[in-house]
Design goal:
There is one protein chain. Helix content is about 80%, strand content about 0%. By secondary structure, the protein is mostly helical. Helix 2 packs across helix 6, helix 3 packs across helix 4 and helix 3 runs parallel beside helix 5.
């Protein structure tokens, strides 16, 4: 796909997420191609994040800096966990989605968010106060697209119920993660 076609598809995704994602699902891409596409988006996102931090937001002296390898590891763990949660929980709630389509949903969401990441960089470089608004709008767009993709993927009619389930799962994962971190002795520095 050319960058022009990807951009047009991303814009169409924002305008009409369910039908656009439905068309993407109809491509029936093989699982290995989808995993490779996800890996590529994660690598690109890490590169963009690193370049942005080098040129626009260098760490203060004595500040915490995360290595690119650690960054890509963290950025890979979240989407992979998300893929399996979308698949297992959706199927458990009566959905009909395939694992391949869950991979597609997260991968395509990453592609759209890469575009938004570029917009955030431009906003940070040109109008730093505007970048905060772009971040908030990006979070809203992320949740909206994730909700629409899951609803389309599993054949759910109510996007409101899907959104409520996403919030429920986010709270559950956050509580579970904080419990595990507390058990292993990780604390918040003061």
């Amino acid at each position: 796909m050319s960058p022009r076609l990807l951009t047009a598809l991303a814009v169409e995704t924002v305008r009409q997420p369910r039908p656009t994602f439905g068309r993407l699902m109809s491509l029936n891409l093989p699982r290995d191609v989808l995993w490779q596409a996800l890996a590529l988006t994660l690598i690109l996102s890490t590169l963009i994040t690193e370049l942005t931090s080098v040129f626009l937001a260098p760490a203060p002296d004595g500040g915490f800096v995360i290595s690119p390898l650690m960054l890509v590891t963290v950025q890979a763990a979240v989407p992979v966990l998300t893929i399996f949660l979308i698949h297992w929980l959706g199927r458990g709630m009566g959905g009909t989605g395939r694992l391949e389509d869950a991979i597609l949903a997260v991968t395509w969401l990453q592609v759209v968010m890469l575009g938004l990441q570029l917009v955030q960089i431009v906003a940070l470089a040109l109008l730093p106060p505007l970048s905060g608004i772009v971040v908030i709008a990006g979070l809203a767009l992320f949740l909206y697209l994730l909700t629409a993709f899951i609803a389309e993927l599993h054949g759910f009619a109510s996007m409101g119920r899907v959104f409520a389930m996403i919030l429920f799962v986010l709270v559950g994962v956050a509580l579970g993660l904080s419990f595990v971190l507390t058990l292993i002795g990780v604390t918040v520095p003061r």
